[in-house]
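Hi all, a correction to my earlier message: I attached the wrong file for Tyrosinase copper-binding domain-containing protein. Here's the right sequence:
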Amino acid sequence: MTNTMTEGANESLAKLKALQLAKLKYVVKIPPPPKLNLNGWPDKDVYDPELDKMFWWRNDPVLNEFHEHWHFINTGGNDNTRRNRDGEIFIHMHRQILARYDADRLCVGLEKVKALPDFRTPIPDSFYPHPNLFEKWNHTRVHFMARPANQTPHDFVQLIDGEVSIYTISDLEKERQLLIEWIDGGTNIKHPIPLKRVDSDANILGLDIERRFHKFGHNLLSNIMNPYTIGYPTSVLMGARAGIRDPLFLKWHRYVDDIFLRWHNYLGPSDFHHDAPNVTIRTTDIILAFTDVLLKVYPDGQKDKWSEFGKQTFGGSNFDVNFTSGPIITNEFHTKMKYREYIWREDFFDKENITYVFPRDWYYFLRVTNEVNITSFITFRIFIAPEVFSDSIVHWIELDKFKKILQPLEKTVIAREADKSIIIRKPAQKTESQFDESQIIPSLHKVESGPTKQAVSDKLFCHCGWPYHMILPRGTKGEGTKFKMIVFISDGTNDMVPLYDQCGSTSLCGAEKWAEKIPDIRPLGYPFNRPFKDGSYKETFKGLHNAAIRNITIIWKDDDFSEF
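and the right structure:
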């Protein structure tokens, strides 16, 4: 009797939900589907990828694979545990994507990416996913949804675990309002504990934004073309595999980052005098040289990575010589565009010829003086920013971070190769076969479905890192694009930064093992994690003996250069 009653109740509930969904389907207005040609693209007067100046950047397969790997690594554990500082990592990694995107937009003559103005204004950007790009849906593979220009976000319906949910724009606006109240020093029903204005609370805020507001926004924006989501495939904005391909991804993350920046600005400028080791580095102590030039001048130098060569050439009696010009050194970075055949191994093995940026390999030779008669542990932090964006903390691009030991009163020259950067996946991917190693093919998905999320994270960590071929913005032809470079030296005594290089990027992806702490006690993005003094990077770093700033120009070259 009880089972019969239960079955009857379940049947009634199912009918009620079906009726509710039927009504919602009638109420929710679905925009007309975009018109596509047989080749999968719209008419060229609607969208032409060849005229999209940033198509090559957003659609770089290795970049998108990095983003997907990052989300494999940084996820909640099966036992509700979290990776160390994962909220802070979320903000920092996406901020670095935005900084690099804006730098390359500058190089092609575009303005910085603009955040969404709100959730009700039509979105001018269209998005037509590549015809070779498919998603898994209902036990098959279908194309991701396209989005014509000037679409307006809508309230949307979802059926999750049998429960009907309606998500509204008003709900998202309320989430934002509660976040702003919290950031501005208040408390509310969602945030009963005050948010402190200390560096360590970056993780608390980042995690809260990522898990609620950020995901809610992705849901809303991904369902613009199918607000009645039941029975419809999603857009690339759902999931991490291809989101970067859509310009709206960058607009949304600029919106999210602006909220976090509001809190950052409350922290006030950093006082670096509490983190100033007794070392000196000058502007003329930042010396750069291309690897192919070094090989011509002194080929034996590759045996010790030009360490002794650097000391003999730029140290000793030459320690105070200004090497701003000469046949060995460079004041430029060079890039070029390359072509290769890309096979869509994650989809149906279609083949396509793609273009991608590639840097000319270089070495840093950094002269530094230990001013005290004790052994000193120091950490180098290297960043660049377009000169026109240099007063914006969110536009400084991290190039490297590494630790060295100085002997008492030592004056030395430290050689460091670019392709060992803490930012990139290592070993650096430079060849087509190495690029293909990033592809998330079925065998990697088997790893993804491993015993626990913690085990998957540990297994895939070495796959996580910024693509080496995109380590630099492309620059411009001719005279190039002007950048500023800073080498900031922090006290490395107890900062946890290792003396060895790791396979993945501990700066962008977190600690190598689930249970470990990020190997840096300082905030991610340091020393650009707080507002500048008087809004000026010059005022902020003026007079510091442990920081040096120099000019650098990035030139996109027509002629070829050697690769290693």
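Sorry for the mix-up. The chain has two domains: 11-266, 279-420+477-496+523-556.
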